[in-house]
Specification:
two-stranded antiparallel ribbon; 254 residues; 10 helices; three-stranded antiparallel β-sheet; 5 strands; 50% helix
């Protein structure tokens, strides 16, 4: 059902679709839904039109002007995505369309803030367990180029420069303090030496050995590149698949 209002924006919208549609199937362009899917439009050929990236962007801007209510909110979200560049998208950089993106971004932010107010995040406390998703995440991490020491140093320098001179607000400082409550702070070498001297020669309390034995029960030693770690049996295969080897790291002979 057509939910567009009868204004000049609607007339401009249909004028672009009728007069500027790209009819050549082999010509480069972007496919546009005349009646958006969120408003009941389908993927039939009658509801699809090929437009240039510029005309496509303007059509989505016009949709934000010719709709009302929940449909307008959806169109604001859709036009906001027109500002996202990608391999198969030609985003526009003319002054007029960029200004339209900017104004829409402000309106989108207000709508998004209002819609999300009071909502419980769907992923709070969620732990991903789907094997296919975990495998893709692991593969993506392995494919990601590793930072060299020089690149890492350069990255840290950029972060340092971007933060130099900036001051946190009092609210941020309070949140940071609150988040650190209960987290032990790093101890100085002097403090550690005092603790060590105080405990040297003091016998362990009864039951200490049993607690240690219970804590390491089922641990399996593995090693890779001179690094040794303990894992549980259910974790072992994942590490073996990642080229870890059974047993502790080789010790140097005395």
């Amino acid at each position: 059902m057509n939910q567009f209002n009868n204004t000049k924006y609607t007339r401009w919208y249909y004028s672009i679709i009728q007069k500027r549609a790209i009819l050549d199937k082999d010509a480069r362009g972007e496919i546009h839904h005349i009646i958006p899917r969120s408003m009941g439009g389908d993927d039939s050929s009658e509801n699809l039109v090929k437009l240039t990236g510029h005309d496509h962007a303007w059509c989505h801007w016009l949709l934000t002007k010719m709709t009302t209510g929940s449909a307008k909110v959806s169109m604001i979200y859709a036009f906001n995505m027109m500002g996202v560049s990608g391999e198969h998208m030609e985003r526009q950089s003319s002054y007029a369309i960029v200004r339209a993106y900017e104004k829409n971004r402000i309106e989108w932010s207000k709508n998004h803030s209002e819609n999300m107010k009071g909502r419980e995040p769907w992923n709070r406390g969620y732990v991903e367990t789907r094997p296919d998703v975990l495998a893709r995440v692991k593969q993506a991490a392995n494919d990601r180029p590793k930072l060299t020491d020089e690149k890492l140093k350069e990255k840290n320098e950029k972060i340092k420069l971007s933060m130099t001179g900036k001051k946190h607000s009092s609210e941020t400082i309070e949140r940071m303090k609150s988040s650190q409550k209960g987290i032990p702070k790093p101890k100085s070498a002097e403090f550690r030496a005092q603790v060590k001297a105080k405990l040297t020669g003091v016998p362990k309390h009864s039951g200490h050995g049993a607690k240690v034995a219970n804590a390491v029960l089922g641990n399996i030693s593995i090693n890779k590149d001179g690094i040794e770690k303990k894992v549980k049996e259910h974790q072992l295969q994942d590490y073996l698949n990642d080229d870890w080897k059974l047993g502790g790291r080789p010790r140097k002979k005395k």
